[in-house]
Amino acid sequence: ALINMSLDVLGAAITRAHGGGASGFQINAVRFGAASITTACLAIVAHMAAWLRCTRPPTWASPPDLQLREWCGIAAGVVLVAFACPALSNHALFSLPLGAWAALTALGPVYAIPVFFVLRGERTRLLGVFG
């Protein structure tokens, strides 16, 4: 957790120092575009290696067989959780002092406890609250 937090703050400082001319959505377009291209390249390499060895590619390298509705749900989740949320967070990064942004971002898991209770009826154990 400490390493994750440290890398998060380092990434925020680098983004703030060098991303001033870009919007939060532009920063995320580069970030997730690069991640998508990298993932696609790794999957292609895995498929080619499997083809050369005359074996099946690993399961992670092939998309699951899902219905259109399921793929739409996954795509909506990716857009909202993995793109819109960080884009808005990047917008806040440039709008707020860095310390205030880091404090508000760190409180995110605290909000998850009541949201889970309201949406799913799941109670969080005491150990989960401190985790």
What would you note in describing this structure?
The mean pLDDT is 83. The relative contact order is 0.10. Helices cover 77% and strands 0% of the residues. The protein has helices at 2-18, 24-52, 68-95, 98-106, 108-120, 126-130. It has one domain. It is mainly α. The chain has 6 helices and no strands. The termini are close together. The protein is extended and about 55 Å long.
Fold blueprint:
Layout: H1 2-18, H2 24-52, H3 68-95, H4 98-106, H5 108-120, H6 126-130
Keywords: Membrane, Transmembrane, Transmembrane helix
Transmembrane segments: 32-52, 73-94, 100-119
Descriptive labels:
6 helices, membrane, extended, 131 residues, transmembrane, mainly alpha
What is the strand tally?
0
Rg from alpha-carbon coordinates: 19 Å
Sequence of secondary-structure elements: HHHHHH
Terminal CA distance? 10 Å
What is the overall number of helices? 6
Structural class: mainly alpha
Task: Give the overall silhouette.
Answer: extended
Helix content: over 70%
Overall structural domain count: 1
Overall mean pLDDT: 83
Largest sheet: none
Low-confidence stretches: none
Strand percentage lies at under 5%
Keywords: Membrane, Transmembrane, Transmembrane helix
Transmembrane segments: 32-52, 73-94, 100-119
Describe the structure concisely for a colleague.
Keywords: Membrane, Transmembrane, Transmembrane helix. With 131 residues, this protein is mainly α.
